[in-house]
Amino acid sequence: QVQLVESGGGLVQAGGSLRLSCAASGRTFRMAGWFRRVPGKEREFVAAIKWSDGTTDYADSVKGRFTISRDNAANTVYLQMNSLKPEDTAVYYCTGAVGGSYNYWGQGTQVTVSS
User: Fold this and answer.
1) Residues 6+ apart with CB under 8 A from 105
2) Which of 2, 61, 95, 106 could in theory staple to 102 by disulfide, Cβ–Cβ 3.0 to 4.6 A?
3) Which helix (H) or strand (E) holds 112?
4) pLDDT less than 50: residues of the chain
5) Distance between CA atoms of 70 and 61, rounded to whole angstroms?
């Protein structure tokens, strides 16, 4: 059974930092990523990483503030979030792609940034 389990969300003041973790079990992925969703809005891409060589991609809104990384041995993906802003408040979802699309999703973790 494939599982993606996120952790690390919480409440932080603007300008603060949080680190999200996503532990994968059941299989390995070609790509791993983070998306976020605000109630009433569509899910938004945040960051992605290619598992084989660590190539990364970021949404313009988080470039320079967020860093995605992975630990191959632990089969875990991280999202380091610095200089957080109130507009970063959302439920953050970890996802894994086997082929060309994201097939597996975690349950989500809430991130709330207070002003």
Assistant:
1) 4, 93, 94, 95
2) 95
3) strand 109-114
4) none
5) 21
